[in-house]
Amino acid sequence: MGIQTRLTEMLGIEHPIIQGGMQYVGYAEMASAVSNAGGLGILTALTQPTPEALRAEIARCRTMTSKPFGVNVTILKALIPADYDAYMRVVAEERVTMVEIAGGSPAKYMPMLRKAGVKVLHKSATLRHAIKAQAAGVDLIEIVGYEASIAGGQPGDEIGLWVMLAKATAILQVPVIASGASATGRQLAAAISMGAVGITMATRFLATVEAPIHADIKARLASPDVDERDTTIVLGTLSNATRVFKNEISEKIRDIEAEGGDVDFSRVAPYAAGVRTKKMWQESGDTEDAMWSCGQSVGLIDDVPTCKELISRIVREAEGQLLGGASCVVVASRL
Fold it and tell me: What is the pTM of this model?
């Protein structure tokens, strides 16, 4: 059997599962493992220090897989000063299969990406952003529920995927990807039944053999002591609400935000700085000593499989759920 959707057809992949962009995790090792397992792996552009370093990472990924893969470009100009135009030019020049754009409008880049034949997925935290992205001409829209490891939410945007996906698939004309604490085949089946063409997973891929992060972090994610209650929201006062793992650092950030008054990034920077998170991923493995994105799907993680084992398991479960659901449909007799 298998699950074929407009997503698999559009991107030339085997399974309708995309690995979300993850800062300091989305290296060639991660992306190639997901792509080789039949999903779509994603390199994270800003994990690379320069646009040319991204070009080199794309080339390295091509030595590790012959399958399609993409690049995430998260545009957060106020928090991360970067030459976004140059990063996007590299994506176009290297003609990767797909770019996942988050945090900003894709409009200015559409002519260049379209000319290069790069499919464009916009990661939309709200329906208003999704509608604008559709008007800009994107190929796919990723609807992100509040339970996901979101970034960019504002007060009033605290809407879960159950509602967001139902509205998006009813309103939007372009294919929709479900993103919101997904980690199982049951969720893939539910998303497809609601009209989505696939799912995006990020947190779940952290707890895989190939994820290029410290083994202690993977063990913590799969621990029975960690569940869906172990996340929290920070940076909401900066209109950049982000779901992260609940630990000493995230609680310090929340305390600063709770003090009131003007909260600018400089006050939380010592705790939220990417260099601190990078050290945790790659060196210390101390899950208490950094702010790191984590969706509520952490409550669905209980092992550390290979990407192939994980994706195969999810697809098998989804197939069973979809077939079971179809058996509930009763065709009225014409007699």
Answer: 0.95
